[in-house]
Design a protein that fits this description.
Blueprint (H helix, E strand, L loop, with lengths): L2 E4 L9 H10 L4 E7 L11 H10 L3 E7 L7 H7 L3 E5 L6 H10 L3 E6 L17 E5 L14 H14 L5 E5 L7 H7 L3 E4 L1 H4 L4 H9 L7
Helix pairs in contact: 2-3
Length: 220
């Protein structure tokens, strides 16, 4: 059964309290929060004050994805805001191991995200030190993009390495996941499905989350 992490980037920010209440009442596992700085990606989303308010609205895991330059400058502030998991991009970290250590020492589970053009093999030396790899299946920075199919091969390679080394590392996939392609993503080896537009634009978001949670595969 996949972990379902609705991306609040696709939610209605005028009704954020209602959106959080709906997710609390649903089978969603994590709240996925995309932080964009307008430098690493061509968009600006939200920051620490919004995360602080969301933290007060749920006891579910806050899965914070930093699409920002120099994430190490802000890591303590995201911990204080209530992040449980903090993911930084391989492409923005000059000293990735130090960034990962900082996140873990602050009491959060560290994750590393990779863009479409970044090969999964580049993470080999950091895999034993992290709890999550976020595989981008679209170009980061905007919601409502279409899933890019070659991502499935990257997920399979990553899952093979994680299983081979018996690591406790979750594979999270972010971008363009729908009810139509979610099973193929899960079958490829993903543990966590980040889903935005498909949930928040649904006529019945709770039912959509239920359908995503009901996906079955040989991977457990």
């Amino acid at each position: 059964m996949p972990i379902v992490a609705p991306s609040l980037l696709a939610s209605n920010f005028l009704r954020l309290d209602d959106e959080c209440r709906m997710l609390n009442e649903s089978e969603a596992d994590w709240f996925h929060l995309d932080v964009m700085d307008g430098r690493f990606v061509p968009n600006i989303s939200f920051g620490i004050p919004v995360i602080e308010h969301i933290r007060t609205a749920t006891t579910k895991t806050l899965d914070v994805h930093l699409m920002i330059e120099e994430p190490e400058k802000f890591t303590p502030a995201f911990k204080k805001a209530g992040a449980d998991r903090l993911t930084v991009h391989f492409e923005t970290c000059r000293n990735l191991h130090r960034n990962v250590q900082q996140i873990r020492e602050l009491g959060m589970i560290p994750g590393v995200a990779i863009n479409l053009h970044t090969p999964v093999q580049i993470l080999q030396d950091i895999l034993p030190d992290i709890g999550l790899v976020l595989v981008m299946s679209v170009n980061p920075g905007f919601g409502a993009q279409k899933f890019i199919p070659h991502t499935l091969g990257k997920i399979k390679l990553l899952r093979e390495k994680i299983d081979q080394w018996s690591l406790d590392v979750k594979i999270e996939v972010d971008g363009g996941i729908t009810l139509e392609n979610a099973k193929s993503v899960y079958d490829a080896g993903a543990h966590v499905l980040v889903v935005g537009t498909t949930i928040f634009k649904s006529q019945d978001p709770k039912e959509t989350i239920h359908q995503l949670k009901s996906i079955k595969t040989i991977n457990t």
